[in-house]
Write a structure and sequence with these properties.
285 residues, alpha/beta, Conserved hypothetical protein from pyrococcus furiosus pfu- 392566-001, ParB domain, five-stranded mixed β-sheet, two-stranded antiparallel sheet, 50% helix, 12% strand, elongated, disordered N terminus
Length: 285
Amino acid sequence: MAGLGKGFDALIPTDFDPSLLIDSKDRIQKLLITRISPNPDQPRRYFEQAALNELAGSLKQFGVLQPLIVVPLDDGNYRLVAGERRWRAAQIAGLTELPVIIREPAQLEELEIALIENVQRVDLSPLEQAISIERLHQQFNLTYRQIAERLSKAETTVSNLVRLLQLPESARDALAENKISEGHARAILSLKAYPEAQEELLQNIIEKSWSVRQAEQFATTYKQGVKKEEAVKERMATETPETKRLSKTLKTPVSVRRTAKGGRLEIHFKSDDELGSLLEKLNNL
């Protein structure tokens, strides 16, 4: 009873761990980094070394502030579900322990967690997203609409991402290495029936720094049956002798844009007054 005279503080152990009150599935624990292995189904395949080194420096100074998510293995070790960048950077920083939340999700939930974390936190590349989305579709029988809902993306966006897997290997590699953009990749995809043209377009994009618009014009021209290089370049040109003459007459830039069916003539103007003046000139031609 003597303890009661010291107040209620005497009844509460000073080394009490408040985390014990947290549900076990959300409790943060410390694990030796050597007991954690990467997820073989991790959708991200490429980690930029400079970014990892920068993160490692931050971890040395401040520690790992956000716990990794792991699942237990039969041998007593753990497999990463989310947080591989932190795990890799921690190794570079020389850390021996990492904060983790241990979970036992179903395989589908596990992959979803990994995908969503990467998409939202480390800007997963379009090709890496496509690989993960297709795995969800094929192995877990999810429709693209269901996957789109989980990722908060439009269904058309998800479908377009998956189409990137149909690129030839050389184009997939170029996209993964950021040598071409997703827009370039779509232009290459549109030439799926012409493998040689796909390779030609890829080389032009890389070697000549073609814009997405130029890539699209090449694809459109090729599908229209124009195969010879000089003829292709001529059809890709936005300026022709005719547009030059019209531009001189109207005293404003005039260009032509080819499309799958014909094209369009573009007459540039800077204001409504200039537009009115151009319309008047056109009427008098």
